[in-house]
Amino acid sequence: MPDSAPPPAVQPRQHAQLRAQPGKRRPLLQRLTWERLKTIALTLVFGYPAAVLIRLVSPLVRIRVGEIPVNRIGYILPTADLYLCEKTEWRGRRPIDLVYFSGPPVNSAAYEMVRRKIRPVQWARFIAGPNARLPGAENHVVEFRYFDSDGIRARVGPTLELDPKWIRDGDAWLESLGVAQDQPVILIANRDQAHLDNIHPEMNWDYHDYRNTDIEKMRPMAEYFAAKGYAVIRMGANVAAPLASDSPRIIDYAWNMRTDERDLYLGARCKLFFGPTSGISELSIIFRRPYGAINVAPMLTTMNLGDEPIFYKDGLWMPKLYRSAENGAYVPTSELVAIGAHRFYSSDDFKAHNLILEENSSDDILAFAKEMELRLAGKHRPSNGEDARYAAFWKILLDGGKPDGRASIAAFYLKKYPHLLT
Questions:
Q1: For the residues of 306-351, what is the DSSP string, one character each?
Q2: Partners of 272 in the beta sheet?
Q3: Which of 272, 280, 148 is nearest to 213 (CA)?
Q4: Strand partners for 69
Q5: How far apart are CA 207 and CA 190, in angstroms?
Q6: How far apart are CA 233 and CA 272, in angstroms?
Q7: What are the residues whose beta carbons fall under 8 Å from the beta carbon of 274, sequence distance 6 or more?
Q8: Which residue from 69, 358, 406, 410 puts its CA 20 to 30 A from 390's CA?
Q9: Rounded CA gap, 200 and 266, in Å?
Q10: Distance (Å, whole) CA 391 – CA 263
Q11: Is there a contact between 246 and 265 (Cβ–Cβ < 8 Å)?
Q12: Rounded Cα gap, residues 374 and 372, in angstroms
């Protein structure tokens, strides 16, 4: 997870577009509900004086105001986790933070887990607007972030804890499915729009449908690990299609078994997670489980300089492939960088430049999983020219920058698709 760079105050990474509503807009007075009028009144009567007071007392104590959106799993988990990491490394005089939660909780268990660590001060929402508008805001706003830009997660370790009851219930549930307590678990997930359409049916999510993927392409990988004795569990919520398999070790949890508590339990229980660069990956990231990112798009998303994979020294990623809509040929990385397509965040941008994004194939996903398995076991042996290919790719993608500390793009992938190196 969380795409476009957020401003200092946290904003959603995907800015949804409201579906057009027929008819004229209602008059202003009709649109001003009682709740909205109350918010405006409290902001004026309480918010602005409080924001002024915050500045007046700043020589004695620094007070900050911040918002954590809780309506998406890719918002609440990374922002809370990184904030708690920063608090453990804080040096000098600590500020007093007034943090409030916004939006309806997308996952009640995640909300409760975060709330135990960060006590929300809900009335601070009336101060947030005035505080951001008055001079000196940079000193009085909590700058939550989605990305681990300095590797703090590796230094601090997990900051969020499961309720012991969730662990007991999760163990019993897995045992009822034939998964022993000492049996390793691998999580897999794909990305589609069914979940977003379900929780926000009033919005149009087509603007980033280039990120969607087909769960069926992950089945050979799932069967590979199941044959080796792993329990392979498909994650997700309100998914578009089931994962068909005859293996009893492949569990389509997302289709008809999920609960909020089990989401978090499985994130902590798993040995490894394979999935897209979307919010669901945070279920493993917050518990510091290895994460293999497949179907990454655009190329500079969570693989960007200073972004998430700073933590994943042993992590791996693999982007979607870009084809020309005119002739079907693969587009070299240098051409993508030249037109800025390595950081496009809208389906319309890709269409405007005649680009088609191609999902990772079943064979490539399986090869990716095998490579990551070897890397985590310390058994990966670089092939001839691997280091040179790796350096050449990053030189093009980062315009001469170095990828020190970031997750590796899969070695087999660079060798199989040489256009990535030109």
A1: TSGGGS-TT-EEEEPEEEETTT-PBPPHHHHHHHTGGG---HHHHH
A2: 186
A3: 280
A4: 102
A5: 18
A6: 11
A7: 186, 187, 188, 189, 218, 221, 291, 292, 294, 365, 368, 369, 372
A8: 358
A9: 25
A10: 37
A11: no
A12: 5
Q: Which pair of tokens denotes residue 170? A: 């999760």
Tokens 């939550």 belong to residue: 144
> 3-class SS at 420?
helix
Residue bearing tokens 């051409």: 335
**Can you tell me the distance from the alpha carbon of 341 to that of 338, in angstroms, rounded to the nearest whole number?**
8
Closest CA to 304 of 408, 389, 419, 398: 398
Is the pTM higher than 0.70? yes
Amino acid at 341: A
Which amino acid is present at 297?
Answer: A
The token pair that represents 393 in the structure block: 């790719």
Count of beta carbons in the 10 Å neighbourhood of residue 173: 17
Q: Is the dihedral of CA 266, 268, 269, 271 positive or negative?
A: positive
pLDDT band at 217 (very low <50, low <70, confident <90, very high): very high
> 300 and 308 in contact (C-beta within 8 Å)?
no
Phi/psi of residue 403, each to 5°? -90, 30
CA 163 to mean position of chain CA atoms: 23
Straight-line distance from the first to the last Cα atom of the chain, in angstroms, rounded to the nearest whole number: 28
The C-alpha atoms of residue 108 and residue 374 are separated, in whole angstroms, by 37
**Alpha carbons 366 and 227: distance in angstroms, whole number:** 13
Q: Is the pLDDT of residue 285 over 50?
A: yes
Q: How many residues make up the chain in this entry?
A: 422
Helix (H) or strand (E) holding 265: helix 260-269
The per-residue pLDDT for range 171-204, each reduced to its tens digit, is: 999 999 999 999 999 999 998 877 666 666 777 7
Task: Give the span between the Cα atoms of 418 and 54, in whole angstroms.
Answer: 57
Q: Is the CB of residue 411 less than 8 Å from the CB of residue 382?
A: yes
- The DSSP letter of residue 421 is G
- Three-class HEC string of 39-87: HHHHHHHHHHHHHHHHHHCCCCCCEEEEEEECCCHHHHHHHHHHHHHHH
